[in-house]
Amino acid sequence: MSYRIAVLLCVVCTSALIPTPAHAIEAKHTSKKTIKSTKPSHSARFKVVVHRVARPFSPRPSRPQYVVAVSPQLRLAALNEATEKISFREPQFENSAALVPFFELMNEAQRNAQPVHILQFGDSHTASDDWANAMRVAFQAKYGAGGPGFAYAGHPYRGYRRFDVSGNNSSGWITEGTLSQPGDGHDGLGGVSISTNRAGETVKVTNSSERLELLFMTQPQGGTLSFSVDGMAVATISTAGVLGPGSYVYTPPPGEHTYELRTLTPAPVRLLGWAADNHRGVTVETLGINGAQASIMLHWDDTIWPAELASRDPALVILAYGTNEANRPIFDPAEYRADLVSVINKIRNATPVASILLVGPPDCGSHGPLRHLDEVLTIQHSVARETGVAFWDWRQHMGGPGSTTLWVRAGLGQGDHIHLTGDGYRLLGKTVFDELEMEYAIYRSTQPAQSVQTSF
Asked: What 3-state class would DSSP assign to 107?
């Protein structure tokens, strides 16, 4: 059976982003610069194209996909085999006891009608939002919708999207925090910000929530913003002050609303994101950057980032990196191990109560595994044990080494043998949710009988 590539344009994890206006960044194939760090139990079973128009978030595919054409019969057989391999009758988390704080917070939230926030940091697998959205839909269907939670301001780069938020920005905003323009690290919770020093620049977002918070950076001689709701002026917001995190909170009336920010002065303004929340239910918040490695988080400064992470009060933090590390031309195992430990410690210092789940990279590589994939996975297993975080082996769930070929044939993987298709990511998200649910059921079976609501 010969394979035919139907679409030949794809943005891969190893793409770097060119510094262009925030709405006009598209990834291209290039070698990636590594951002160096700025700092050194009894187990429970538990082609860069610049467009001079604003780009909205969109549920459509964020990038063209490699599509491999195979016969329907072969595709169906491969799909059945891949689905069988990923379907486990028991949860497959290593060090599952590390998830107990998450489960305790889930229980407490159900008793007291409180929100539960899940934050996922990662590379392009996360940035596309397909995987996280599958988890979001499943969690919210069972436990209630907590709102979109955190989302980047505007549309900072082409590969970013959210299925549950729509928005755009005018052309005068500049993105910082990407691989090609890391900036100064003052980029907030998601490590990506947009900034301008021009009057008349706008950012819009449309969503439905019970509480909306604008996150920005205060700075000396910071500019002023007007804030309007559905076209009606509501407030004027100053971003002037000492360098640090700033916020503006608005309580909207029920229903969906469109919020607009407009710069009023030719002075510097830096926006870090929005947080749209309900008073109960689950959020699954995606903070992915195309081409990122885990060490990118070490570049995020301690003036703003820890405070913003703590303010989200996450019950679970998912770290989903490794593909780009595995594809580095030069790989230093000791440096990678040290960086990964530092990232985990950085999260723990900011939010000590949250559970941390480390997700390994998928099986990937069209001619055998990526050059350092085995080393990355070995180190991740080891670091998870040493630091006491949970680990979920994505590659093993796909079927182990070489399984990416099966997933491509099944229509679950793209022809670059790195990314999944939308169907593949949705299957991944459902599988992670199902196994978390199985672990949660095991945890609940060990708890004293108590009255717990069935939903938020």
From this structure: helix
